Amino acid sequence: MTTDAQPRSLLKLVAAAVPVLILLILVPSFVATYQLQLVIYGLIAAIAALGFNLLLGYTGLLSFGHSAYFGVGAYSVAFVAEHLGPHSMEFYLLVGIPIVAVTSALFGYICVRHTRIFFGILTLAISQVVYSLALKLYWVTGGSDGLRVPRPALFLGLLSFSGPQGFQLFVRSYYYYVLGVFVICVVLMWVIVHSPFGKALQGIRDNEVRARFLGLRIRRYRWISFLVSGTFTGVAGILWVPLNGLTTPDVLYWTFSGEIVFTALLGGFRNFTGPIVGGIVFTYLKTYAVASTEYWQLLLGVVLVTLVLVLPTGIVGAISRAAQRLGPRKAAP
Amino acid sequence: MILLKTINLRKQFGETRACDGLNFVVNKGEFLSLVGSNGAGKTTLVNLISAHLQPDSGQILLEDRDITFTSVTERIKAGIARSFQIVNLFDGLSVFDNVALSVFSREGKTIKMARLADRDYDVRRETLEVLGRFGLASKAAVPAGGLAQGERKLLDVAVAYALRPRLLFLDEPTSGVSTHEKAQIMDTVSSVVRGGMVTAVVIEHDMDVVFRYSDRIVMMHEGSFLADGTPDEIRANKEVASILLGAPLTA
Question: Among residues B88, B96, B170, which one has the least CA distance to residue A204?
Answer without folding.
Answer: B88
